[in-house]
Amino acid sequence: MTAFDWINYTLLAVISLVCVFPFLYVFSVSFTDPEVYVPLRFYLFPEKWSLAAYSYILSTDSFANALKSTVFITAVGTVLNLIVTFSLAYALTKKDVPGRGPMMGFVIFTLVFSAGIVPNYLLVQNLGLLNSYWALIWPVLTNAWSLIIIKSFLESLPSELEDAARIDGCSDIGVFLRVVLPLSMPAVAAFTLFFAVSHWNTYFNALIYLSDAKKWTLQVLVKTLVIDSDNAGMAGAGGDERSVPQETIRMASIMLAMAPILLVYPFLQKHFAKGIMLGSVKG
């Protein structure tokens, strides 16, 4: 290997360690027994393993409500995102669709310009969606970037397959459901991951649109635990809060918020690797 390769690999190794160490610290502290936990001490591995912090968090009503809210928003939002994005992108691939040009212009316009926080808030307020889960779903049913990428991918599919399906008697909806979607599974898997991660990590919109603490998402609850000075957000605990250090509770809440995505990603990695090349130029 050349000197450049050694320097490159060394820098990448250092950057990787810098990224991994905070995760290891969070993981170690969350599993450290409260009896041996020492504040402001770096833990690479727990000295004594314990599930006390996780037991405490899972016994609270606040975590159960936040988990329910996040799962609902992620599941419903992801399904609606896929339906709206793929159906609209498929329609935009058809040159004979009335208003296709202006519609595509609107899509590109939103890619370049954003209304901003205040207009978005006023829109949600006028729609009567404040303090509702739908405030985190309806305004983000799709986005320009996803539409353009999926449209480019659908245009690369052989048009002869659609023609053959129409000859066999399929309607436009039948062609979309029976021909286009089965051929688009890598795209569906990739954007399922994109949309699900986006909804799961919803924080700012949940913070400004949801005023009821019982409807908080996991990210808002984690923010309350990590940033606030107390565990006021963890209501309805089944055990004694004082027996579990606040730092271990905070780290355990971070791990619980990350765990679902970390567990789902390996199952979608095969399709995700294919999906990231959607819309790329083929030689």
Report on this model:
It is a multi-pass membrane protein. This is Carbohydrate ABC transporter permease. Pfam families: BPD_transp_1. Keywords: Cell membrane, Membrane, Transmembrane, Transmembrane helix, Transport. It is found in: Cell membrane. With 283 residues, this protein is an all-alpha fold. It folds into two domains: 50 residues, no CATH class; 225 residues, MetI-like fold, CATH 1.10.3720. 65% of the residues lie in helices and 0% in strands. It is built from twelve helices and no strands. α11 crosses α12. The radius of gyration is 24 Å and the shape is globular.
Concise account of the structure shown:
This protein is an all-alpha fold and 283 residues long.
What's the CATH topology name of the largest domain?
MetI-like fold
Number of domains: 2
Principal-axis shape equals globular
Oligomeric state of the chains present here:
single chain
CATH homologous superfamily descriptor of the largest domain: MetI-like
Radius of gyration: 24 Å
Give the number of DSSP strands. Answer: 0
Termini gap: 30 Å
Low-confidence stretches: none
> Helicity level, as a percent range?
55-70%
CATH hierarchy: architecture of the largest domain: Orthogonal Bundle
Beta strand %: under 5%
The overall pLDDT, averaged over residues, is 84
**Total of DSSP H or I helical runs spanning 4+ residues:** 12
Q: Which class of the largest domain in CATH terms?
A: Mainly Alpha
The major beta sheet can be summarized as:
none
Q: Provide the succession of SSEs.
A: HHHHHHHHHHHH
Structural class based on helices, strands and sheet pairing = mainly alpha
